[in-house]
Amino acid sequence: MPDDQSNPQSAILDRAAKVLPAGGFGNYAADIVIARGDGSRVWDENGREYVDLLIGSGPMLIGHSHPEVLEAVREQLPLGQTFFANNTRGIELAEQIAADMACAEKVRFVSTGGEADMYAMRLARAHTGRTKLLKFEGGYHGMSDHALMSLAPQQMVNFPVAVPDSAGIAEHVRDTTIVAPFNDPETLTSLLDEYGDDVAGVIIEPLQRLIPPAPGWLEFVRDECTKRGIVLIFDEVVTGYRLAYGGAQEKYGVVPDLCTLGKIIGGGFPLAAIAGSDAIMAHFDKALVGPEGFTFQVGTLSGNPIAAVAGLKTMEILRRDGAYDQIRANGERMMDAAKAAFGKAGIPVQIVGDPTLFELVFTDEEVVNYRHVLNSDKEAEARYNAGMRARGILKPPGKIYTHLALTDADLDQVCSAFEETAAEMSG
């Protein structure tokens, strides 16, 4: 066993095990401790270097420690860290979001994407006076009770029954949650015909984890919500400013009533937002809707000026000519390399997603919903993830985040890792 001098990460992990449940923060694998990040790369506490395709689970679309973002933060720091009051930088960020997102007439800040999703669902109930929410099996919308219904069920039940993903969720939450399959207009129509008068909102990831919407799917969902008076919520915490500068709304040409944003808009700092129409966002204003219609929301760090300036600078960089062309080209190169490597190795795999966010699913069937992902070869998936990490590629299970900071050398390493991992798995 290496001593602490040759393996300092081991000693840190021992400390973590004493104070952190399961030895970690509950996010990524607890067997690694990141010491620093710069551009496209991160280093663990043992000094091992990785090409970073995790990028903090998405926020670092322009890379770690971008010098222009650091300069914006340095300028703000001596002016104050947080105020629990309006501040100019937060207002500027709200103005920018309202200009960028098709659905955004008003913006309300929170600190995390999960909070934003929770408040969006609450707004839908406040606006319609209805109680039920419809979500899609496998869709991730944070950690609130309604969000943790049928996120990752291991046993399949009949739709629309919701399966809680966590202990501690009250039984009545199941009764107010309707679950539908993604990319299935017929089932959605049937469920809305039966329950539609009670449905306050439909919440959907336009790109669900990594599954693209089938042609016409989002338009169909939009039309159904419109004709039934249901609030349509796009969870754009992941897709906002990633699939396109204007998010999924721009890429797919479908405008929701509300959207939630996070990750990129904080430039690596904790910040998220709910954005939507004047009529629905009015429920945050007691003077407009009265006590009965008021949706109460406060947050100590909401609109934090440091996060706001980091987000504003990140968004400015993304507006520059060629930024999204480069991000998509980086993704396309990796997708092509993965397809070639695993095809050559004779391993059944589907490359699923968008060049900005994709993954390999180990199955020979088309992937159109959560159940196709669930039925993939989990042993192959585990070997693939382990093989990539062994070759210096840091990625989350189930995703590859493309980003702007990737260099040709990084992409060469990723493509080689695909080829070597595929060869190892086929041997």
Can I get a quick summary?
The chain has a seven-stranded mixed beta sheet with strand order 4-10-9-8-7-5-6, sandwiched between helices.
Outline the fold blueprint.
Elements: H1 8-19, E1 34-38, E2 41-44, E3 49-52, H2 67-76, H3 88-100, E4 106-110, H4 113-128, E5 132-136, H5 171-175, E6 177-180, H6 185-195, E7 199-204, H7 217-228, E8 231-235, H8 247-252, E9 258-261, E10 272-276, H9 278-281, H10 286-293, H11 305-318, H12 323-344, E11 350-354, E12 357-361, H13 370-374, H14 378-390, E13 393-394, E14 400-401, H15 408-426
Parallel strand pairs: 3-13, 5-6, 5-7, 7-8, 8-9
Antiparallel strand pairs: 1-2, 2-3, 4-10, 9-10, 11-12, 12-14
Summarize the structure in words:
The protein is α/β, with parallel strands linked by helices. It has helices at 8-19, 67-76, 88-100, 113-128, 171-175, 185-195, 217-228, 247-252, 278-281, 286-293, 305-318, 323-344, 370-374, 378-390, 408-426; strands at 34-38, 41-44, 49-52, 106-110, 132-136, 177-180, 199-204, 231-235, 258-261, 272-276, 350-354, 357-361, 393-394, 400-401.
